[in-house]
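Structure first, sequence second, as always.
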């Protein structure tokens, strides 16, 4: 299975589902490690700071899970805002991105 993801001014690049899955799994493992580290540092950090850190990591873990679901249902790499292809460069940097940069900027 391959994923079409457009590059600016280049023909669409084909991303293999296996490669995407590996990137997402790496992101998940990184976030789980961050969560573990934040919880271990609970003695050293204030409760508020710990809550902010763990909430942020859990939010990203949720986004990663949603990216796995998009991969499974065939919508991975398609912007949820405008329906166009998310550029491969963006997916390489942020493999769980659900929107192109323009749509993401309009929602934040």
């Amino acid at each position: 299975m391959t994923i079409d993801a457009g590059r600016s001014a280049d023909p669409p690049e084909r991303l293999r589902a296996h490669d995407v899955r590996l990137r997402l799994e790496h992101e998940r493992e990184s976030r789980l490690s961050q969560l573990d580290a934040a919880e271990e540092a609970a003695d050293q950090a204030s409760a508020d700071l710990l809550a902010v850190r763990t909430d942020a990591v859990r939010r990203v873990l949720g986004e990663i899970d949603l990216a796995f679901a998009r991969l499974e249902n065939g919508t991975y790499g398609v912007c949820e805002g405008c329906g166009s292809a998310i550029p491969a460069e963006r997916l390489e940097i942020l493999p769980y991105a659900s929107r192109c940069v323009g749509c993401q900027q309009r929602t934040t």
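Margin note: The CA atoms of residues 52 and 58 lie 10 Å apart.
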